[in-house]
Design brief:
The chain is an alpha+beta fold and 79 residues long. It is 34% helix and 24% strand.
């Protein structure tokens, strides 16, 4: 499992992230210390608290993770 943090600041950014995650051939989970949801699920993603950075967990190889990180680069943030 590979991890990184994102920050989604608007409803439009949530929709954009979901579109990017949906095309990935591996599971993408997004959450915080309280809740974890499928990063490809609209209902799950809008139910998260977006006021703080979110942890993304991708069940993939390192090379696939780097490709995914490049796709979602504009949302990347530090913890």
């Amino acid at each position: 499992m590979q991890n990184f943090y994102i920050k989604l600041r608007s409803f439009q950014e949530v929709q954009e992230f979901i579109s990017m995650a949906t095309v990935q051939p591996f599971p993408v989970m997004v959450g915080n210390e309280v809740q974890q949801v499928n990063g490809k699920s609209f209902i799950g993603m809008v139910s998260l608290d977006h006021s703080r950075p979110l942890l993304v967990q991708a069940d993939c190889e390192e090379c696939a993770l780097e490709s995914f990180r490049n796709v979602v680069q504009k949302f990347l943030t530090e913890q």
